[in-house]
Cell division control protein 45
Amino acid sequence: MVIRNVREDDGRALLEMLDHLRQGAKSSTEITVRVLAAADHDGVCSAKMLARVLDSAGVKFLVTPVRVNTEIIDELKTLELDSEVKSVVLLNCGASLDLQQHLVEHQVSEDVRCFVIDAHRPLLLANLSQRNQRVIVLDDDPTAEARGERPPVEEFDADSDASDVEAESDGEKENEWNPDGSAANAGETDAERRERKRLKEEARQEKQIQRRRRLNEYYITSYFAMPTAMSIFKMARQTAAPSQDFLWLAAVCLMGYHDQGLLSEVQYNRLAWEELKDALDSSSDFTLGSSPGSTSRTAGDPTPDSASQANREAASDDEETREREPKRRHVSIPSRRRLRFESELRLSLYKHWSLEESMMHSAYFYGTLELHRDKGLRSLKNFFATAGLPPNEYKQLFRHMEVPLRKSIRAKYREHGKAYGLTESRMFLQQFVQDLGAMGESTFIQPEISCSDVVHVMTALLTSIPSALSSARPELLPTTSDGRRDTAAINKLEKEAMTNNFYQAYDVVLCEDPAQLRDGLVHAIEFAKAVQSLARQIRDTKAMHTTRQFRWCKIEQPPLLFRNTLAIRRLAIWLLQTLFAFTPKGEGAERPLLVIVRDQIRDTYICVGATPAKYSDQDEFGHIFRTILRADKSFKYRYDFFNKSCIEVAAEDFNRFLELMNESF
């Protein structure tokens, strides 16, 4: 695999990738680029951005969302019969899969090249081997760069046995030539020869031990490097016309990492200021959106239908493709939508909800005021009274509050929050806010929306589960002729739902369609309620357990949406924040947390590990999971998630798995 550092030469590696994609498209009128994007915030934002860049470059492409490595393999299999595709771009996925091996195994044309831009660390060292020339990893890792670290590719590539045997053989040649013309080691006694061989063997073993130690150390901790959309943003700035749409996509992606606890607040602030705020200052004359009358879909953007094989074949015919696309309502979008970077209250969706409900569903306020207790609820009412907010104001939608109160809301929190243990640095977060202009005013939406709001919307959309997959209604689940659950049919339904969810998030992220945005906000509010309610249940039933090194909780009958690892991760972060990080006294020291959710449909347990944000670059769950799987090979499990702190274990094996977790941590 060829590794290119995106942080060198002003991101030239990204430009070279784009040039390769352009060259591959010159000799064909068909789709020449396949884009496989992770079904998460980063995958949506980076795919949206890359789609616009490729479209402006005249490159025909197809975007397909993927959840796990198995789905990447399935997509690579389809390339065996597709001679037109020249490149595969993997966005926030693929670096933990031996892509070279699968390209060869599935007889994909030797002309096809894979470009990987993936924030998940560590990278699979088998992928980084110098023998892999068909896969190019675009590495953007400021964390490793700051530490002076690099992936141990040379150590991995070293064939210790062959090289040492060859070296030993060379040393033992009876007639070895040397400049003096005399035999090497002439006059050496048998004892000296044995001693020399012993020392050489010890040196070989020590070298091997050091190499294996280096490899093991590399795999011990998991963390996230530069978000993929942030890397694509660097390329977009150099290749496309200045657009704050790209800046907004990068900002939403970055906020998604912060919201999911994948980046510490220090990392978030550094990237927001150094990478994005500077870009905003240098392009302050530009606004979001292209022109009045534009729609939420740009030319070249993929459609949900394009995920099917039929539409892959039809995509080469522009007219036929347009006929197959679902008809979308034409929405008039104002051309002057401003983007700004400012200190915003950390209140979940408060501009689209009531202040009271928002505080009840915001981790910092919920934890600090202890809103799970009657004492905390009294403190909340006292805070509103002290701040001069009567019940008829804080209980109604924010946009319906009196204008003077809305305009002074931040000042009120700054002035009166301290008396209730609320600190300004925790109450506010610097983030990007988009002014929706006339669109918001004319469609009953608050005329401005923050990156945090959009992240909540995307999380809710990406984790949505159709009623056909509800384990609460088993009669709706597909069955085989003998009455058993049809696993293949269920997998197909899940893939279709995931694809539909991805494109809903894809369409809403730029906030161009008021109807989609309004529906998304409704879903986001319901999702926030579900997280808070389930966390309250875990607290009330004392379901949290503590071991020496980590905590864990198991949920046997979760709401439907918690079959998705993104939703479970969000629950885990809420628990870490409200039980420990933001609670005045806390319930013990912060420790890694393992949230275990029963999947009634598959009869498995989905395990998602989360590390406190300040230790976000030291997550060891992936290493522990791999250690357990090596120790007991009889487990039935699924471990092909992009985030290696997630694993799915068969219900019958789970108790043994948890016992080994306690022993290994």
Notes: The two ends are 33 Å apart (CA to CA).
